[in-house]
Amino acid sequence: MLLIGSLASPYVRKVRIVLAEKKLDYRFQEDNPWAADTQLPQTNPLGKVPALVLDGKEVLYDSRVIVEYLDTLSPVGRLIPAGGRERAHVKTWEALADGVLDAGVAMRLEQTWAGRSDAQRCQAWVDRSLDKVQRGLDAMQAQAPGAQPFLTGQHLSLADIAVVTAVDWLAFRFPQQDWLQGRPALAALRERLAPRASFADTAPRL
């Protein structure tokens, strides 16, 4: 398998963590979708990362599709329950974390994208996106259980991976803001997973 993506992308990192946890072999090809010389549209017509190339031809894209596929490849460390309410619970956590990321990315692009001048930037849009991020983090804190080590029980799941990936990216891109102030459950989860090899080896970087 060939994974195409950016080392700074939280969506790519989520896939890389799953690959590590599932002990799956793959090659990594770095590509910045915002660069003028990006080759990504030749693989993913949407021009987004991550993209996972299977057997040199078939391509999967969207991190949610990719991680769900990867979880079926090995019985080692199942990260998504097979069905029922437990599966829906984990996927809802992932949707919430990805929604926080989507809003965070929108906020960052509005503030920094070189394709817009300062006069074209919209503070109201930044504020709206920030509000979504804060509400999402508040919901995570409120829903996080206090009496178990992980979000959905005694074992690591995709819920934990998605949430910590989102929190780490916010800290990476907006270090001036303390995203975990008043959110002790999220802080504890992040601290618990930080030393784990799959998380430590994939920390976001430029």
TrEMBL record:
It comes from the Bacteria. InterPro entries: Glutathione-S-Trfase_C-like, Glutathione-S-Trfase_C_sf, Glutathione_S-Trfase, Glutathione_S-Trfase_N, GST_Omega/HSP26, Thioredoxin-like_sf. Residues 1-78 form the GST N-terminal domain. Pfam families: GST_C_2, GST_N_2. One of its GO terms (molecular function) is transferase activity. Keywords: Transferase. GO terms for cellular component: cytoplasm. Residues 83-206 form the GST C-terminal domain. This is Glutathione S-transferase.
